[in-house]
Structures are given as structure tokens and as C-alpha cells.
């Protein structure tokens, strides 16, 4: 009997080790795998306004679930928009929207590169800035079908990903809900002396260095996790939140999939760059609680950081020099 129990425990241990190894390989590939960027564009040097989207999840009303940017295409009265998502290494036009636009007469040419599908050219107005873009990736089997008489209040046709800020400086003014892009640092930015280094990975992941409880981590900045302060492992979730506060459990939407999330408000202070911010909200993904302890010690990431810690500040990210700074005062 003891031998059977021993063999069973050994098999379980081997399975856990294999699962951990596979998870580590996949996660590190997710962070470091080389990702080509074929997107090119020119734009007017105007601030791009974004809106906060809100959503109801079950009986819970969630604020600031996404950063959305109004988009116009010449000849259409439809109210289009795209989501700003630094967690996506690509900007996308969704396939169903692409087909709908083509059916309405927009001359969109599709090209194939490295077995992936792209829109060759597209002109549009993002907020008030005219954009002339080439090689926008098409996301298969996703999006909305619409026609010229459609009365949908707002139509989400795509995502603005981190390739949009590649080799540029981006200024995200959360207080005034504006995004600005620069090819080089303007004079007012050259006067700032508190830029700090960060790692902009080959997969265009923005890994920001932080200190919590005198421990150093790297948080992946993902504006697509907009409503969250930090998504991390369960042990840190318990450490960073009040044990007497009841958790909130619900399914968060991720590219059409429901992910079980456990969340609590948090007053935890952390240091990022030379600035102290509050996490405001900490969460963990309930479905990964078993494998997380196996994978986490061998990966760089301390968690996914959304917009909540920054929403009263300005975040400047220079992907050319791999430096960033946070400003608490208006610029």
C-alpha cells in the first residue's frame, strides 16, 4: 500500500514538474520571442483623446475597463473606435470589420507576409489626428459585422497595440485623457532629469521596474488590463490586500474569453522609477493558482500592471532609449 502511495505521489510530482517546465517555456517565449513589426504610419502631431469605457459584469459595474479612441473613416457616419492595448504586440483590424468595410466600398487590399494577413494601406482619423498606415494586421474570426444603415452606437473595429509606439516616445496623460506621440524628445521633455531605464523586450513588452516591501520586481505594463492595479500570484494578492475585506469574484473578458478573477482594493504603496504610487486594486487569476508557484520563481515578471496606479498621473515611455518617467503634476 505504501509503495502504491509512493508511486502515485511520484507520478503527481513528475506531472507537476512537466507542467511547470512547459509553463515556463511558454511564458518566457511570451515575453522574449522576437516579434517583427511591419506597421508603418505617418500622423499629424496632435494629441489623441481617449475615452474610458465602463462595463457591467454580472451585478458588478466596472469603471475604466478600457481606453478607447474614437476613429473616423472618410465617407462614413458610423461611430468607430479602437482600444488602446499596450499588452498586444500588434495593432489589429478585426476580420469581420475588415470584411464589412470592404463590402461598403473601401478599397482595402490584403497582403500576406510570413503567413500572416495584413491590410496594405488604410487612412483614418484617430481622435483628431490623421493617420496614414500600412501593414495593419488582421485578427481572424473576430469583430463585428455591420452595413451602411447600421445603428450600433459604437463599433469597435480594432486594437492599437505596442507596435504603434515602437521606436517612438509616447506620453499618456491619464488626468486629461490624452495620448501624444513624438519621434524625438521635445524641448520640454529634455528638461526632465528623472528618466529611469526599463526593458522593452523583443516582443514589445513594457517591463517596468518596481519595488514593493523592499523587493525588486518587473511589472508588465498592459493598458488592456485597464481596470486593474496589479494582477499577480495569490500569495502576493494576500500580502498586498486587507484580509478583512471581502474579495470580488467575477469573469473578466480577455479577447472573447472569460477569465476568473479575484480582486480586492489595495492601499499598498510601491516605488516605480523615482515615484511612489498606490496599487489601488490587486487581483489574481483563480484558474492558475496551482501552477503559479511552480512557474513564478523562474520568470521575470512580478505581475501585470494596468492603468489604475497611473490614472492621476502622466506616464512617458521612450521605446527608443528604453527609458520612462512618471509625472504627478500636469504637463
Description:
It is globular and about 55 Å long. It is α+β, with helices and mostly antiparallel strands and 331 residues long. The longest helix is centred in the N-terminal third of the chain and has 31 residues. It contains 5 helices and 23 strands. The strands form 3 sheets. Strands 4-5-10-6-9-8 form a 6-stranded mixed barrel. Strand 14 and strand 15 form a beta hairpin. Helices cover 17% and strands 44% of the residues.
Which structural traits does this protein have?
globular; 23 strands; six-stranded mixed β-barrel; six-stranded antiparallel beta sheet; alpha+beta
Give the N-to-C terminal Cα separation.
71 Å
Number of helices: 5
Q: What is the CA-based Rg, rounded?
A: 21 Å
Spatial order of the strands in the main sheet? 4-5-10-6-9-8
Question: How many strand units?
Answer: 23
Residues in helices, as a percent range = 10-25%
Shape: globular
Strand content: 35-45%
Mean pLDDT: 84
